[in-house]
Specification:
The chain has 76 residues and is mostly helical. The protein is built from 4 helices and no strands. 78% of the residues lie in helices and 0% in strands.
């Protein structure tokens, strides 16, 4: 797990989060009680959680022929 967190480009991740924060700040400044502000914040948090969950998963398991065939068949 330690090696995987070192492979993340933290500057790029921080820049993306800063853009999200600035977008939320801009959105909140337009209207005081904007219902889309809460929705947008939830989607950003969900995206961050999914990003770190997918990053922690070992994707090399998909190289196995049986797993690849199972994923292919389930998607069909």
């Amino acid at each position: 797990m330690r090696k995987k967190t070192k492979s993340i480009d933290w500057i790029l991740c921080g820049a993306a989060l800063m853009l999200c924060a600035l977008g939320l700040l801009t959105m909140n400044s337009f209207v005081a009680d904007d219902p889309f502000f809460i929705r947008q914040m939830v989607w950003i948090l969900l995206g961050v959680v999914i990003f770190f969950s997918a990053q922690a998963f070992d994707w090399r398991i998909l190289r196995r022929p049986g797993v690849a065939a199972l994923v292919y068949a389930s998607l069909l």
